[in-house]
Amino acid sequence: MHAITRYFPILTWGRSYDRSALSDDLIAAVIVTIMLVPQSLAYALLAGMPPEAGLYASIAPILLYAVFGTSRALAVGPVAVVSLMTAAALGQVAEQGSMGYAAAALTLAALSGVILLAMGLFRLGFLANFLSHPVIAGFITASGIIIALGQLRHILGISGGGDTLIELLRSLGGNLGQINLPTLVLGGLATAFLFWVRRGLKPALRGLGLGPRLADVAAKAGPVAAVAATTLAVWGLDLGARGVAIVGDVPQALPPLTMPDLSPDLVGQLLLPALLISVIGFVESISVAQTLAAKKRERVSPNQELIGLGAANMGAAFTGGFPVTGGFSRSVVNFDAGARTPAAGAFTAFGLALAALSLTPLIYYLPKATLAATIIVAVLGLVDFSILKRSWSYSKPDFVAVATTIAVTLALGVELGVSAGVAISVLLYLFKTSRPHIAEVGRIPGTEHFRNILRHEVQTDPAIVTLRVDESLYFANARFLEDHILDRVTRDKAVEHVILHCAAVNEIDLSALESLEAINQRLSEMGVSLHLSEVKGPVMDRLKRGHFLNDLTGRVFLSQHEAARALQSPAAPDETRGRAPAPDNKGGI
Amino acid sequence: MHAITRYFPILTWGRSYDRSALSDDLIAAVIVTIMLVPQSLAYALLAGMPPEAGLYASIAPILLYAVFGTSRALAVGPVAVVSLMTAAALGQVAEQGSMGYAAAALTLAALSGVILLAMGLFRLGFLANFLSHPVIAGFITASGIIIALGQLRHILGISGGGDTLIELLRSLGGNLGQINLPTLVLGGLATAFLFWVRRGLKPALRGLGLGPRLADVAAKAGPVAAVAATTLAVWGLDLGARGVAIVGDVPQALPPLTMPDLSPDLVGQLLLPALLISVIGFVESISVAQTLAAKKRERVSPNQELIGLGAANMGAAFTGGFPVTGGFSRSVVNFDAGARTPAAGAFTAFGLALAALSLTPLIYYLPKATLAATIIVAVLGLVDFSILKRSWSYSKPDFVAVATTIAVTLALGVELGVSAGVAISVLLYLFKTSRPHIAEVGRIPGTEHFRNILRHEVQTDPAIVTLRVDESLYFANARFLEDHILDRVTRDKAVEHVILHCAAVNEIDLSALESLEAINQRLSEMGVSLHLSEVKGPVMDRLKRGHFLNDLTGRVFLSQHEAARALQSPAAPDETRGRAPAPDNKGGI
Q1: Nearest CB to B556: which of A537, A540, A587?
Q2: In whole angstroms, how far apart are CA A280 and each of A80, A276, A326, A417, B73?
Q3: Dihedral pair phi/psi, residue B451, rounded to 5°
């Protein structure tokens, strides 16, 4: 691909843009705009920012992503988990509602932008892979609970807050006496309505005779209806005077030009949170983008996506926003509404700019409880404990990683939760590879196949021990192999040859090479020779660079069959060992 | 093995102890004692401890190791690298020479003891494997330089010090004006003599007609001769009055009973250093023990070795010592001198106790420069940059790990050096496995073997793509595989079947399973079916627990040959692709 079109995907799709694409994109933009106005306000509330920041964070970032991003349907802006992480990070450096808080949000967005751009330019997108699927699932579930509990106080009309399960429960419990009844009624009705919209509105509209597409669009407008109805109720019944918290004055303006504060102190405090936000945001975004692209047999480029998201966050930093990423629900709506190119995003940005210019006076009386209801209904859809069951039945290490992530996120907060998830997955993986499966193999009678003597009925020669190591050999398991082989041979004085069957050895590092040298030396002192079979090309290439192959007391065989044939003692007949294969072992070797 | 004899190896070898073993052990003990007196004093100086602490650290620990250790020749006590790490750790909590410093040394030894015992009881010996051989080699080389430079001031008779290369060079440069000539002459002569002892004394003694064994013993006494000669010189020429630093008063007593200070503050500060000291000490000790055991076809038990070393460090903590481990030079001397059981260690301890009781007045005039010379000559033997060359030619990631370890140790000190070494090895390993080698394979004509199309001349069917993944599939490479396969298939519209050849896949974790499900789903949307071949037993067992095998659009084949035969389109003849194998590829697959 040409370098310029690689970094500016807009040059590729822009060239073939036509009227039919334009009309599809316009329709999608209208639908997404209607959905995004309440959602942007709500996620601003979740991030602890003023409501207009949610709109600002959706305008410039969408435009910049349209220029640099590779997904045709991805819609960027504030999303639930990243907004929660933003609130957690900013809470450590400033008081919510203060000038410093909003300023630090710009810094956080700028740092995320720089980190994402750097990861994209240096092609470090693979780093995100260290967040395993189960860890992400556990993290999102735990975050959803934290978010929903945190918003509950807006529904109850009480004060308080917290970053962890215990803090939140204690704060809710301690302030229950403050419950504001009008807020609770309004918030409760809005929540119930939104749950119904999610589950029951579309079938109901279809029942009334609406076409499927129109029913879909109308269902997306559910939150707007809740916003309108509760705003009217507050205004008409003067509920503001009865203690219902409202959004209040929102500036009627386009996004301002802002300059993030990059003082070393603030940057130092926000760097790690920005890194975590960037990685989590990228993982969420790329998953959505790849899922949607696959449906049209298109591909997204992970490293260019990093650049697109980095540009979007830089946009947020310079226009009064806060960290953004590609959101799941908004992107799916965009895709389902028929968006064909990133131009749909640009039209959405235009719609949101219109809203920021003209609609803000209308939301003066909008109760915060309605926004909280929007958030709660959205995030409870993310809470899914089935990953615990799935991982438990599939693999215990995965289960441990998920359970740790959920427990730490709930108990100690989002930043430690996601860090603990990554750390424990890596440690468990290293632990597994440090104690590799080593099978002793023998020949299945009448074939050239060599199988585990514990799983199959095989023939072996008492003078030959063949060990198949099911792992790359590297520093963490080098000594384990040494111990295993020497233990095996010290026990059995009949052994004259040890064959290492290397078909599953993808790498031999210098530590492992030194262990092999030591094994060769020690076996040689015992009068036993060491052979290798089925060594892979790349591994063999590397072994040739050292003197190991010259010192090797035995030989290197192309195939295990050849090795066994060459070393077989003609006098001693094969003995049959092992057991018949288990009936459920079909397909395994 | 019976539980009691497992934890008390003394019960095994003690039962068959006889007169011939006794006489061998006694001879070895005499030789080792002669060697250990100056060495213990010197390493105490290196650790910043009073000289007698070096003797104390060799008495109780040797006795306890004799009870709990499994190596028959290992000699524990203060060693160079651990003494340096001790000085670095204690320097952060107290001033050298203060009461607090010696007290903190007891705490450090106690913490090391607890850590080693815990690792042994919980069978965590494998953790030491994360220190790769090249990292250890680099670390010891860099430590040797730091130690030698640090001791140079005792030879020059100047003050100063430091933990890093730059600090040490700056301190030496800044204080050069203070050089004390008598000290320099004495220290220089001692150093030159000890180098000659190391290289030339034994051949010279053989030339004088001594038998090889006697020449060997006499050469070991070289340091004692240097100690005696320089002590006499200081006494006779009254060099103490001319500024030569001397050892001075050393208590004439058996090791005292001491109680380590376990206040939470001090423990908190010393915990991490104690962990690093424990791991480094264990790795050094186990390497020596295994090397010596192998020479007699014996085995040491790594987890029991941890218990032996833990007990030794507890002994040091309660008898006025500092952290100890199994030393290379003393163990080799013990082995070469003919030690047959740990009883030799017990006799050595007796000899050292005698020395502590009777010899200490004799070393009042011993110049510190002589001890520094002993250290410098010993550690320069450890400095070996050849690991840089070896790792460069064998594998670049190993080279990066070694170079980083050496650079960080020299620039930032021992603790960061060894931590950086472990961290970078793990990261490089994860990086490698996150981008696995994936080979497209085809059948070598006339055989049932399938090889890389880039390395061999093979036959393929245009409708079938067979990919051999040379790595376990886990979270870090799950997405890579997904990208690789979808890129390959999207490019080539002729493909109808994708076969994943899994002989080198030792593990499929839940993330990878989800990626496989996604690959299966997306290929299915493109009308391409996914098959697996040569799946290993343990991997297959696990796959059966999920619903992946039910959803799989293709089949699971026992062998790749069977898969290719079953899927081959009879109409389209095989096309020959790839190239002839390179002539240097013999033995590789």
Answers
A1: A587
A2: 12, 6, 11, 12, 54
A3: -130, 165
Q: Any residues with CB less than 8 A from the CB of B585 and at least 6 apart, and which?
A: A537, A540, B455
Q: Which residues of A touch B430 (CB under 8 A)?
A: 130, 426
Using DSSP's 3-state secondary structure scheme, residue B288 falls into helix
Residues A349 and A408 in one domain: no
- Min Cα distance B365 → chain A (Å) is 46
Residue B97 in domain: yes
pLDDT of residue A58: 92
In B, which residues are within 8 Å of A534 by CB distance?
589
When scoring A475, A484, A514, A555 by the number of chain B Cβ atoms within 10 A, the one with the most, hence best to mutate, is A475
The pLDDT score that the predictor gives to residue B586 is: 38
For residue B571, the model assigns a pLDDT of 54
> For residue B413, is it within any domain?
no
A535 and A413 belong to one structural domain = no
Among A303, A426, A510, A539, most B C-beta atoms within 10 A, so best to mutate, is A510
Which residue in A has a C-alpha nearest to residue B490's C-alpha? A297
CA–CA dist A296, B385 (Å, integer): 56
Residue A122 touches chain B, beta carbons under 8 Å: no
Q: List the single residue in B with minimal CA-CA distance to A434.
A: B126
Q: Which chain A residues are closer than 8 Å to B491 by Cβ? A: none
Are B367 and B503 part of one and the same domain?
Answer: no
- Which residues of chain A have a CB within 8 Å of the CB of B525? 294-295, 297
Q: Provide, rounded to the nearest whole percent, the portion of chain B with pLDDT above 70.
A: 96
Q: What is the ipTM of this complex?
A: 0.77
Give dist(CA B243, CA B181) in Å, integer. Answer: 9
B residues 433-452 near A, CB within 8 Å? Answer: 433-437, 449, 452
B97: three-class secondary structure by DSSP? coil
Choose one of B372, B399, B426: the last residue of a domain.
B399
CB contact under 8 A, A526 and B297: yes
Contact criterion met (CB < 8 Å) for B537 and A433: no
The continuous run of DSSP H or E covering A374 comes out as: helix A368-380
Task: For residue B499, give its domain range.
Answer: 438-585
Lookup: tokens for A321: 């926003």
Residues B367 and B270 in one domain: yes
Give the CB-side neighbour count of residue B205, counting CA atoms within 13 A.
20
Quick one: average pLDDT of A529-555? 89
Neighboring chain B residues of A391 at a CB cutoff of 8 Å: 510
CA distance A414 to A262: 24
CATH assignment of the domain containing B488:
3.30.750.24
Among the listed residues B84, B32, B38, the one whose alpha carbon sits nearest the alpha carbon of residue B193: B38
Q: How many Cα atoms are found within 13 Å in the side-chain-facing hemisphere of A53?
A: 28
> Which residues from chain A sit within 8 angstroms of residue B470, using beta carbons?
506, 536, 538
Q: If you average pLDDT over residues B472-497, what whole number do you get?
A: 87
A12-43 tens-digit pLDDT: 777 778 888 888 888 888 888 888 888 899 89
Confidence grade of residue B588 (pLDDT, cut at 50, 70, 90): very low
Among the partner-chain residues A131, A482, A537, the one whose CB lies closest to the CB of B588 is A537
Residue A471 in contact with partner chain B when CB distance is under 8 A: yes
- The dihedral through the CA atoms of B178, B183, B185, B188 has a sign that is negative
Q: Do residues B388 and B460 both lie within one domain?
A: no
Position A570 scores a pLDDT of 63
Examine residue B423 and state whether it is found in any structural domain, yes or no: no
Tally the domains of chain B: 2
Task: Say if strands A457-460 and A575-578 run parallel, antiparallel, or are unpaired.
Answer: antiparallel
For chain B, say whether A407 makes contact (Cβ under 8 Å): no
Residues A325, A225 share a domain: yes
Shortest Cα–Cα distance, B558 to chain A (Å): 5
Q: Residues B324, B442: one domain?
A: no
A34 plus A112 within the same structural domain: yes
